## 1
Amino acid sequence: MADRDGARAETETTLLSRQSLGLLAAATVLAVGTMVPPPAAVTVAGQRTLAVFASALVLWLTRPVPYVVSSVLSVTLLFALGSVESFDAAATGFTSTLVFFLLLLLLLGDATTSVGLDRRLARRLLTAESTPRRALRSVAGSVLALALVMPSAMARAVTFIPIVKRLAAAFGSSDDGFETGAFLVLGHVNPIASMALMTGGGMALVTSEIIATSVRPITWVDWAVLMLPPTIALYAAATLCASLFAAVDGETTLGATAGARLEADGEGPAPETDGDEPSSLTRDQRLVGLVLLGAIAGWIGGSFVGIPTVLPAVAAVVALSLPQVGVITADDIAGVNWGIIFLVGAMLSILDALETTGAIVAIVDALARWIPFAALAQWQLVAVLLGLAVGIRILFSTGSAAIVVALPIVLELAAVFDVNRLYLALTVLLVVGSTTILPFNTTAVLVSMDRGPLSHRDVASFGLVTMVLAVGVAGVSWLVYWPLVG
């Protein structure tokens, strides 16, 4: 007991030390950036915006304070240091459709979870009688299907962890590779599914918003046509590699007795409601299912008649919040991940200030001086830009935050050197969304590592595998598929 308390105290001391260093580093960066005379190519306002940008990155990476606090501080500093003319101009990112859309999707995803519709769909999609390899494919296919109605890789992972545990216990073999392979799917492969649809998650939403503002307008159907086939191909290839990576057994069958136990939820940990779950859908489950189908129909139809994508999401949330329905409540809204919403809003505000002050052009010019872009072939230039995006990705705990930081810079460089910016933006999404080198890079991986048999080596090794697969799929899409449909 004393050893455990000592280890906990040591961990807390280490964390406190890292956070204190983060605060000190952020304050130092801000002080230097505001007091040192700017270079000739940068205005005073531009340098101060860059200082706020750099200090915000330090705060977001080290997290000495919650994301909400650091985001509000960064926006306030833009105004207080004179980088922009008014506080309204400093907070422009929070007026973006993206911020409200992300909030609405989080609420819809939480509604799916709160009524148990996610667990019911997951159980209906899986079969008990199966070999470990077939069971792994069933888990992967079920996760992909659930992604259509649940825009959160983390929520999908949490939903399937008890199911995977029960399947692993039913197989009862420690060397069949199923559990390792399944947790690789839940951690690394699962987030890939979020890229298939514009409404699939934060990464897709952020990328579509940047494309719409920097490249060209893009509808829900446009996104599905461009991204659904590459995403499914990448997802299938990654699932196959997870099976090979974990050496999943393809011969041993589950057996009738174990299968009966599995169907009765008699093995392994399970949600408290699984054992007495009714055979038919509940009222709330039917309502949520119908509302989600209506929202999807609105997104598809709206792409052809010009209805903004946010409107079906607003209608869905309002419908589920009505007093007669009561699925989405004040507690659900309070429980939303406001940190990532504020982070995205603050980052969009900072990006607007970087563009207004010309600082982002200065960044591009500096990169052009350090790297001989003009001497590179186009594929080499794209490789360097992807390397830059992946480097930024490794620093962040969420893919959407990494894309918000990296994609505008990458697209600015692409415009200078006449690279197809639409294809590049989609390629950055595929590669960044498939790259997990450190466990904290993706929350689904972090949870899977905590609850499953994965090691740090497994996480990093398979993260490199999925990154290479993403580069391959993006390359084929760039050269063959996107020119056909774009």
Note: Confidence is low (pLDDT under 50) at residues 256-276.
## 2
Amino acid sequence: MRSPPASRPSGSRGTTAPPDRGQSEGDPVTSDLTRATAAELAALYRKGKASPVEALKAILARAETVNPRLNALCLIDAEPALKAATASEKRWKKGETLSAIDGVPVSIKELVRVKGWPTLMGSKAVDPHQPWTEDAPAVQRLREAGAVIFAQSTSPEYGHKGVTESPLRGVTRNPWDLERTSGGSSGGAGAAVVAGLGPLAIGTDGGGSIRLPASFCGIVGHKPTFGRVAAWPPSVNGDLANTGPMTRTVEDCALMMNVIARPDMRDPTSLPADDVDYVKKLDGKVKKLKVGLVLKFGDHHLDPEVGALVAKAARTFEKLGCEVEEATPDLGGVDGRKIFGIHWLCFVQRVLQMFPPEKHALLDPTLLAMARDGAKYSSADLVAAMADRRTLSLGWNRFLAAYDLLLCPTLAVPAFDVGRMAPALADGTPNTQWSPYTHHFNLSRHPSASVPCGLTKSGLPVGLMITAGHYRDALVLRAAHHYQAAAPLKTPALPA
């Protein structure tokens, strides 16, 4: 019933998309269902020009060809997905759909619980022979909305690093260039979405793990305000961790948020329902928004092409009527990188406590090294870092009270070679500060999204990060939507 990446998903043999019926503005018809967005698929279903079964079969067939080259999906469960797609097809025919994403295929990161699927956390140490009897809240909400959950996407072990590779799964590659990383830890999700292996994906973000792959893969990834999307079981990364959508368009992100942004009794930190319609909020005005542009978060290297593309994106916001100015946040003199590092390593060391010593040799050596480093910190070190975290968060609160939006790069570099933890600087030393931005908003809990803002000369995507005050997820998505409409990234069929 379940198939590994290189095997043929059941029900996919000989499947082709329906013939091209032409495209016109306002009529999102496509000859290749694997490249359609969720919104486009819903329009096709509504008009009877395609069905959920056709869409799923097209994606399964593409996965058979493409996934062995990418290693984006580690589990494909075709038979139940085809049953779900068939049920959705009947609902569309009767006009009894459950939501705007009824029948749309979605993949789930392997750190997120799916009923019946082994949730191995990318680890050889986790026992696969467990009941696996419950869905995580986001997965449950997607099922209730009629979405077709068909695959599990790869992650590094326990999401501990910013590239997607593990002793259990191997290396996940970037569809834009197979010799480059897709980022992490939701690298499988990012690669799957941009490669046409499902238009919707659930990722998790403990220090940038949705936004990093979104930047490297040229898609949209949204880290919600902490607690806006309920999560269970709790992450080893504590209250740094978030669950959120990864898609090709901001509209699809909003469609997913309408479904998954709900409380759940299993998550005591989940926020009360706010009844926001994120799709309707996309069309709100951005004119006269006050926007602060910050190109660097301290003394770190910024790739010139990345800086130039983000500065160009800021000028697009000016053309949209925003008031944009370069700004300098006052973060109270604390070091966000140090604060995050202490929190992260202390959380990662919990993994050592979860397994008996004889299983530690099964862990990824990089996770093992991080965990052992985390064990060196005292409770006083962590309490001091928690106090500095509050100072940092207050600094960003003040910044985002003065500005409606913060614009900055998602990452300081484009995607680098697979097999590395970090790119090299000009002198050949590792650039350990290639990701200096995203973790700030895991610490501060602000909503933050990455949207593609162009390609480097070598054809690699670059992400623009948009952040707003607490609970202003709709504003982040609205700004990203207007920007994406003004400066769309034309993505070829990937991998080429």
Note: The domain at 31-281 is CATH 3.90.1300.10 (Amidase signature (AS) enzymes).
## 3
Amino acid sequence: MDSEVQLATVPVDGVTVVPVILSGGSGSRLWPVSRASFPKQLWPLISERSMLQETALRGVGSGFAPPIIVCNQEHRFLIAEQMREAGIEGARIVLEPVGRNSAPALAAAALLVAEENPQSVLWMMAADAAITKPAALAEAVSAAVAAAIGGRIVTFGMKPVRPETGYGYIEAGAPLAGLPGVRELTAFVEKPDAARAAELFQSGRHLWNSGMFVFTAETLLEEMQLYAPAVLAAARKAVEARTSDLHFIRLDPATFRQAPDISIDYAVAEHTSRAAVVPADLGWSDVGSWDALWEISPKDATGNVAIGDVFLEHTNNCYVRSDGIVTAVTGLQDAIVVVTEDAVMVTHRDRAQDVKKVVERLRAHGRHEAVAHNRVYRPWGFSESLTAGDRFQVRRVLISPGAQIAMQKHYHRAEHWIVVAGVALVTREGEETLVRENESIYLPLGCEHRLENPGRIPLTLIEVQSGPYLGEDDIVRSGGGEADS
């Protein structure tokens, strides 16, 4: 699936709309692809672009300001690089020192926008939702912006296509005078059981809660002062004490941690008298499980979705994905099979929500596969373990052009670097050496060293570590460049 995601113009003349993208969470129901170190919004699950890139591109066009992205600080360089790849300039990346749900994140974004213009309209989106009908989205955003200018807090209600227990619901009321396409928001309904979901689906008044909101910075801050003053106070202090470097805005850790952990729905939307809803059919999905991804993905004649090096035989209505080895499936129906380099997950589509329980069990057993991939991304590139044994480990390391790893030394391991592509500039005990393809260099235990890619193509090398202890915490840095752990 590769849809046109950009909205060509902002819906209301003379109004600045600031997209605010919340990029938190680990997407554990999409394990083993989505993990805390590299969650689902950073993966290309519905097109050739990542879900974050798809979301950000929806707010590119005349009248849209560069986006504000609120995210985990560990993902900052990945997100900055994805914005660069998508051609999105001027994005402000706000770093949360700790996750506190959507209300504190939105309060911080609104405070930043209000410093420039309190009347600016914020369009809040989750980074990991799919929308396949951009024309309908443009119409819905136009209606929502008009209502937001009038002081409303507007959400988008998706017309349900089936009873669904995995979504919250919105009850829509009477149309709002002078605001075509906008209705009163009568009530929020928690995620229902199957019987209640069937009732809501049949009612004709209830819509899926998409989690998107539109409001002016001023309106949100006024309503937060009324209904969530502790959230606003902590966010205000964190914004006032913020620091900035490169594209990143770092919220003050001590004050942001004081914010209550609460969503914007519970903090404000369920209490405010200004709530409104735009009913819409956007081809929306929160892509909250592998079954949801199967539903929105293009299928073959037998209902299968096959991604990667996959071979199917006598298989129907399945989602099969391999990010590594050849994967053959035969005789299955309504199944999900996902293969990565270090994990395999198989489930019936009806039990796709239970994948989260598997991740919880892996965490309880201390398995690193629950939170991290074998390939670890860093600001300078990535590394991945190829094999390991008693007193040795072999890794593949890729350094991006112009990037370098900090000067460092190790007390318990020696390293041997073999360049297989590109050119390495190695500093060893103050002496610089160029190491070319099919050449190597030895780094004895305890020697100070730094690795840099001075070229214009990626540098790839094989690193052989040997010693009695190979943990990533055996590292002493001397500054310069980005650390490798």
Note: The mean pLDDT is 92.
## 4
Amino acid sequence: MKPVSVSVLTDAIRHTLNQKFGRVFVAAEISGITRPQSGHIYLTLKDEFAQISGVVWRTTAEQLKFDLEDGQKVVCGGYVDLYPQRGTYQLIIQQVQPVGIGELELAFRQLHAKLKNEGLFSPEHKKTLPRYPRRVALVTSPTGAAIRDFLQVLHRRWKNIEVTVLPVKVQGPGSANQIAAAIRSISRMAESPDVVVVTRGGGSKEDLWSFNEESVCRAVFDCPVPVISAVGHEVDVALSDLVADVRALTPSEAAERLVPDQAEFLKQLDNVRTRMTRALRDRLESATTELEQIAARPVFSRPMVLVERNAQLVDELQRRMNLAMKRQTEIASSEVGSLAGRLDSINPLAVLSRGYSLTSKVDGESRTLVGDSGMLTEGDEIETRLAQGTVTSKVVKTNR
């Protein structure tokens, strides 16, 4: 037999595999997932007895609704192929269906858990709606029933509000990217709206899936103004509803949550006006009565009475002050006379008038009072002070 090359043999085996098996579906457990920068996904499909390599090309991986994880039980659809460089066969996976749960449900649960762990659903991140918004940005399909229902209820409840419609696809390929881009464009608008409403009418889970995409949820979370999400009917819950600041069950309810009923508001305003008028009237009557009572007081009805009364009091106080001053002066004068008599009685000069004298020794300009003859010697100059005048003499002789 003529030998063949490895390449020829490999191609023959590959051709045989393709013809023999065609498209196959394999139930298995995923393990050994790797994701290189190319975007392809490499994995192993196994059961308790065997395993086969598998590859998900990037174009297929980008269309998967959920993330592939080790340990997942799946049904993979594709075809068997041979990898010539290694001489191993592998399953080229074109479709993946989780076992026991739908593809969309699994994707919903995975993204829900991821966003919840990151805090995108937390109440502390929720922004409060303005009480009376003036401008609203509406992200929806311009041809759907949602825009009609929303605008009809909105303008019935509140007339003076400006609505800017940001038209987008709300289902199908590319719709999620359009919705996310429209929400992110809010920060670049010349006049920023007070509120953003993201809405669409009801539909199947597949129809509403764009509002479960991660790009839409993160755009809602990052929006600088409050966001109302109203997707589908009452029973429908999208992830964008959970991320939004306010969730409305329907587009009509979104309009009701956004603005008050103008007729009811005007009625409340009229009630407030009535209460304010009544309160002001009561206050005016009370103030008038109080003013009349004040005006009736003597200080206002006969203002000079208080002046005259105080003038009389001043006169009385002045009279009493003069008497007190006179009495104090007399007492002081008496005390001064008594003190003067006592001073005269001990004044040495007063003794001189009775024939006594004071003798001082003269030493230049100084004078020393002499109380003992021993203080003097012959020839000392002395000065004698009499009741009237002084006598200067010299000592001739001293006796003790």
Note: The chain has three domains: 6-100, 109-122+134-259, 347-400.
